[in-house]
Amino acid sequence: MNSKNNSREKILNTATKLFQINGFNATGLNEILKESKSPKGSLYYYFPDGKDQLALEAIQLASKSIIERVKTTLNKYSDPIEAIKYLIGNIINDLEEENKLQDISISLIALETYSSNENLRKACKGAFTSLSYVYAGKLVQNGFSKQKADELGMTIEIMIEGAITLSVTRKDTVPLLTISNIIDILLSQD
Questions:
Q1: 5, containing H or E segment
Q2: Is 11 helix (H, G, I), strand (E, B) or coil?
Q3: Nearest Cα to Cα of residue 140 among 181, 85, 187
Q4: CA angle 180, 152, 128 (to 5 degrees)
Q5: What is the dihedral of CA 48, 52, 58, 64, to 10 degrees?
Q6: CB-based contacts of 170: which residues, under 8 Å, 6+ apart?
Q7: Cβ-based neighbours of 147, under 8 Å, separated by 6 or more
Q8: For each of the chain's 190 residues, which pLDDT tens digit applies?
Q9: Quick one: which H or E segment has residue 141?
């Protein structure tokens, strides 16, 4: 990797991490530069539209990472109930053991920017929709109709994102444990 790409990637990776942890408004460009150990000129060279462009690319990078993580985790089990419980268990572990919000959710930036930045709102919407499709795909593979799988995929995404938000707010993982305990009821095909 050449140094130009390395510098750009350092800035983008740092911004992605900080936006997920601190949010859009609480993350300043100077903080990104300091943590990435990059000169100010590099930021504006690679991201001429400034913070908004950087945030948009950070959302795309975070979304790609989160979606890949979810797909990989769900593929460990053929049974969707076991797979989703395993995914929730991994999220719980990240929050409890590592106090890590990165690569788990983009909810913080979505909640901060939904009414103030249409491009960022659309990027977050796309990420949430893609995650719903990942869950739906797992369900279709296991005999659910496409319509039912789409409804349940969105429901699972809503439940997981909501439980992450509540868990972070409460500083415990009870909401995530709760949805893990009822996922089999949601997905029963009776």
A1: helix 3-22
A2: helix
A3: 187
A4: 85
A5: -110
A6: none
A7: none
A8: 455 668 999 999 999 999 988 889 999 999 999 999 999 899 999 999 999 999 999 999 999 999 999 999 999 999 999 999 999 999 999 998 866 777 888 888 899 989 999 999 999 999 999 999 999 999 999 999 999 999 999 999 999 999 999 999 999 999 999 999 999 999 986 5
A9: helix 118-141
Question: What kind of fold does domain 3-186 have according to CATH?
Answer: Tetracycline Repressor; domain 2 (1.10.357)
Q: Rounded to an integer, what distance in angstroms lies between the CA atom of residue 5 and that of residue 129?
A: 30
Residue boundaries of the structural domains of the chain:
3-186
Task: Specify the residue for token string 């992450």.
Answer: 164
CB-based contact 124:113 (threshold 8 Å)? yes
Question: 173 with 95: CB under 8 angstroms?
Answer: yes
Structure tokens at 102: 């990165």
User: How open is the CA angle 22-26-27, to the nearest 5 degrees?
Assistant: 80
Please provide the DSSP assignment of 23-53 as one string.
-STT--HHHHHHHHT--HHHHHHH-TTTHHH
Residue reference for tokens 């462009």: 53
38, two tokens: 């990059």
Going 99 to 102 to 106 to 111, the CA torsion angle's sign is positive
